[in-house]
Amino acid sequence: MNAEVEKWSKKAFAVSVEDFSALIDEAKEVLEQEKGLREGSGLVRISPEAVSNVVVVGDIHGDMENLVHILKDRDVKNADRIVFLGDYGDRGDESVEVYYLLLKLKVLEGKGGKIIMLRGNHEGPPDMPVMPHDLPFLFMSRYGDKGKELYEEIKELWEYLPYSVLVEGRYLMLHGGLPANVASISDIAYAHESHPASSNFEEILWSDPVEGNGYFHSTRGAGRMFGEDVTEKVLRAVSVKTLIRSHEPCEGVEVRQRGKILTLFSRKGAQHYSNKRAAYLVLDENMLREAKDAGVLAQDAARIW
Ligand SMILES: [Mn+2]
Q1: How far apart are CA 173 and CA 290, in angstroms?
Q2: I want to staple 163 with a disulfide (CB 3.0 to 4.6 A). Which of 42, 57, 107, 237 is the partner?
Q3: pLDDT for residue 140 is more than 70
Q4: How many Å lie between the centroid of ligand 1 and the Cα of residue 246?
Q5: Across the chain, what does the average pLDDT equal?
Q6: For residue 58, how far is its CA from the centre of ligand 1 (angstroms)?
């Protein structure tokens, strides 16, 4: 994939508005076909027996340099699946280019989903706006009035993205957090369909863990803070050991709630955030065969730089 990454990461800075628009259409087609392989609109299942190497990537937020770094890494090149946990644009100057590169690779890899792009809160539905939201302005500064149209097309594309991955019996992956009212995996798989009558979709995209027990309002103005009692209940309901999520800045990895949750963050540098390190996670055969807790994942499998 290295040559492809090299080629398309350069092209990302010089692509015409027409080619970008055509790429978004192609990506929508691939995602539309993939919907048939999902449970509900939002759940992608990964069978641990079918793969030997799954890479998980946290928030990118317009950081092309680190996205390219990740994509060129040997582990990522050899991966059977690459799961992105959401938040591709905003808070980073190269958000437009990040979208181009990821969508290009997505289309090149085709359906079947080697590259799985989950929705983050920065790819939310129209009734859940996010601040700051630089993406439309970045599209317009690049492409003028036509940039606004590209942004609208990207917003439509978000509606095609899944928002959770289940590695059966092992791990649940999503952007933000666990909704308190989850009786079975269907409540997560169909969260978009039940939005806004249920708050599950909002919580998946927006929530954050809190140490100790409880279920609280969030200062983010959306989602909730969920404690270890909520996590225990939900992880049991969906039969996995560990939640892998992103959404909160940290020095690459952060173990939460005594090993029940791993937070991953995959952009770095001073601009808009202050973290000096970024990470991605490699779930190798060993990690896939046996469910590990977040402490082990953070120690053994995270690639931090
Ligand atoms: Mn987020």
Answers
A1: 16
A2: 42
A3: yes
A4: 7
A5: 96
A6: 9
Report how many domains make up the chain: 1
Range(s) of the domain holding residue 177: 2-304
Q: Ligand 1 centroid vs 175 CA: distance in angstroms?
A: 7
Ligand 1: centre distance to CA 83 (Å): 15
Confidence of residue 128 (pLDDT cuts 50, 70, 90): very high
Calculate how far, in angstroms, residue 3's C-alpha sits from the geometric centre of ligand 1. 30
User: If you average pLDDT over residues 105-125, what whole number do you get?
Assistant: 91
Read off the tokens for 53: 């190497």
**pLDDT of 180-199, one tens digit each?**
999 999 999 999 999 999 99
Ligand 1 centroid from CA 37, angstroms: 26
CA of 206 to the centre of ligand 1 (A): 7
pLDDT of 78 higher than 70:
yes
Tell whether pTM > 0.90: yes
pLDDT band at residue 271 under the 50/70/90 scheme: confident
If you measure from the C-alpha of residue 78 to the centroid of ligand 1, how many angstroms do you get, rounded to a whole number?
27
Residue 250 belongs to domain with CATH number: 3.60.21.10
Q: How far is the CA of 301 from the centre of ligand 1 (A)?
A: 23
CB distance 265 to 250 below 8 Å: yes
What are the structure tokens assigned to 185, written together? Answer: 């995996």
Burial of 226 (0-12, 13-18, 19+ CB in 10 A): buried
Please write down the HEC assignment for all residues of 146-163. HHHHHHHHHHHHHCCCCC
